[in-house]
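Protocol step 6 of 9: fold each sequence in the batch and record its structure tokens directly after the sequence line. For illustration, a two-sequence batch is reproduced in full.

Sequence one:
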Amino acid sequence: MNLGLYGGSFDPVHLGHLLVAQAAREELALDRIFFIPAAQSPFKPGTVPASAAARVRMLRLALAGDPRAEVDLQELERGGVSYTIDTVRDYCRRFPEAKLHLLIGADHVPSLPKWREAETLASITQFVVIPRPGQIPFEPPASYNLRVLKGFPLGVSSSEIRDRVRRGLSIRHLVPDAVAEFIRSEQIYSV
């Protein structure tokens, strides 16, 4: 069984995230992909995301009708700083026969050696690098099992979407319609 693990703040989830998931399913022959919203990123200590409930609701709206995509709440339920090694170990216990593919943004590759228990993480999962349009090529650590995703790079970011909402600009075609409606009706990011 091939499983994709896609962690992040998803603040908000956008079409770039969904296209990455689709490309990963196709290129890696994934049986399932898990979207894992972080409680708090260790690399964004001063950032306060939208509420966990709002981010989970947006993910569920975005993934509705996709039987191979699931939302995994374990990092939110653990609380505190979210460390990838803890999550991956949980998947190793739950799915001992599965091959785990950890999706990470290309911007995180240079910092991989600084991740908690990075060498152990590299030995139990394959890192799948999500390229970003216009990003400078990177030199991956030699001992890490990296694969670069080929399909669907989209130059959109969650921070850009939050900024557009704050400025009263449209986010149409950047997030699924149901997510845009939820952001509008709940006035998320409007302050």
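Sequence two, same batch, same settings:
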Amino acid sequence: MMRFILKFNVYLLILLGLFLAACREEQPTAVLTPTPANTAVPNPTATIIPATATPKPSPTPLRPAIAVDDQTLTEGGTLTIASVVVPDPAWLVIHAQNDGQVGEALGFTAVAPGQNSDIMVTLDPLQATPRLVAILHQDLGETGQFEFPGPDDPWLEDGEAVSAGFSVDIQVNLPTISIADQEVLDDGLVWVESVYTRAPGWLLILADKDGAVGPLLGHVFLNAGTSENFTVPIQWREATPTLHAILLEDGSRATRLDYPDGDLPVIVNGQPVMTSFAVTLPLDVYVLDQPVANGKIEVERFISDGPGWLVVYFDEAGLPARIIGAAHVADGLNEEIEIEVIERAVTDQLHIQVHNDDEPIGEFTFPGLDEPRLYHGRLPFTTIFQTSLGNYLIAQDQPLIDQSVTIPFVVADIPTWLVIRSGPAPAEGNIFGAVWLPAGINRDVVVELDAEEVGETLYAVLHSDLDEPEQFDFPGEDEPLEYDGRIIQSPFTLLP
């Protein structure tokens, strides 16, 4: 029995050895290589990375945008824009808005790429309009310098400017002018109730010209603040029934009026600070001495308070005698009024008096209803002018424009030639140009000059038209006209 057990154990050991040998034959033989000292031993549990990596997702591009709320604008002129998003450096610009149209740039500031919050922009509160527009502009010119108009145009997104409109409540003491309709007496003083200006400046009174600002009539310097109950002297004989008052900055030379070039209008809400008012002016007939031409005389201007008549009287011992002509005038400004007169009754001086135009309107009934017009309860003196002065002209210094000169005023009782020459008549001199004129008053006569080179001083000379009408014959019959033995001529200078 014992021997059986021993044999059995021997067999088990042999089988176990064969099994282990078979296991060793199935495993590859490992070759041991010495590991260098600085070489890391790989972790047998490390994850194997594929040869091609998975691409990272691209960030969504920033779309430029502006968010802004309605707000109050105070004296400091600072506005706050809630949010601006922009992918690249840009400019945030505040523009005026007039009648729905984008206006000029009033203020700007640089914005950095990304999200920007509570951006402050400062502008002149006087230039602000009740509706403003915030617009993004590119920075395409010199970096950090706003160039618009120029390369820094508005930023377009899908063909549209990136913008946001908003309203502002302007809480600022704005410059103002207060002038009431009034009567201007022959002292020429315009009464001003009040003016407020934030800085020293000028108040100008101007005539009306076709509903717009016309010639300057008077001005006064104002200190900053409120000025009340003062007068401005004006040239009332050049005034119109409607006058304009405008406020200017004192920007060019301190306390020196430089109008219209240096001192510019004060601008509020994109418009100049100005007001218009009506005036009643003294009875004044502006007429020049003149010969009677073709049975007519001409009155330069008259401002009528209601419809009326300009009535011409001949002279007798220095006083108006009988009526020899009349012309109807409308309410307001009347200019270049022709009056037909009885030539045989013309005296060396004539009188003009203003009459009312009572019913029936437009029909002169005097003696009768159309009595002479009173001024402050009294009958004013008549306006007197001379008819024996003869022909004359008025020249003025001027630049040469389009190889032409302009003579402001020529009065003649017969058809004449206006001649421009290099020296006084009758001395020898080159004739540069001539133009034919009818009898009567001729204004702003343009004469083209034939010569390319002319001197600094020229002479305007009146010549007769005695030979073939409207054909200049000189030397010949068309000699220079004279008055009291003197040739009718006037020198003038060509300005650079």
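Proceed to step 7 once all outputs are recorded. Observation for sequence two: Confidence is low (pLDDT under 50) at residues 1-6, 26-42.
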